[in-house]
Amino acid sequence: MLKISRGILVALLLLTTACTMLPSHKDDFTKKNEDFMMRVRWLDIPGASLHFEKEYRQELVERFEESEDLKITGFEMARADIDIPEEKVVVHYRLEYYILPSVTVKKKKFSLTWEQPAVDSSGNAYWRITEPFPELP
């Protein structure tokens, strides 16, 4: 009887540990958002564009290719508004940048909406930005 109880206890412990290791929506979104912000910060625009819906990717890459003098000094998330039932997150960002030859740092606040669409044919669902990146003055 004692062996059975120990066996059940070990099995429950293993199941509990395994369940805590499963990724959550929050973890997945957090990783995607952090990757997006890092790529924008370092001007890896082709990489950052992969976080957008397909219809906005090429336009983003082309727009930043035209801005060779753009330098980003800071990019951070100010706040996130989470809509769990709709699987949508509106993220409010702060971008600091300058455009050569000027060295005056400009600041822009804007929001982007992330959504997790239904599972695709491969069985995956990814968080994507569903609107274009804003124009910089």
Q: What secondary-structure arrangement, pairings included, does this model have?
A:
Layout: H1 2-20, H2 25-41, H3 45-49, H4 54-65, E1 70-83, E2 88-99, E3 106-115, E4 128-129
Antiparallel strand pairs: 1-2, 2-3, 3-4
Biggest sheet: strand arrangement: 1-2-3-4
Uncertain stretches: 18-25
How many helices?
A: 4
Count of strand segments: 4
Q: Helical amount among residues, as a percent range?
A: 25-40%
The best one-word shape is elongated
What is the arithmetic mean of pLDDT? 85
Q: Measured on Cα atoms, how large is the radius of gyration?
A: 21 Å
Proportion in β-strands? 25-35%
Question: Strand pairing plus helix content: what structural class?
Answer: alpha+beta
The topology string of helices and strands comes to HHHHEEEE
Largest sheet: 4 strands, antiparallel
Q: Termini distance?
A: 74 Å
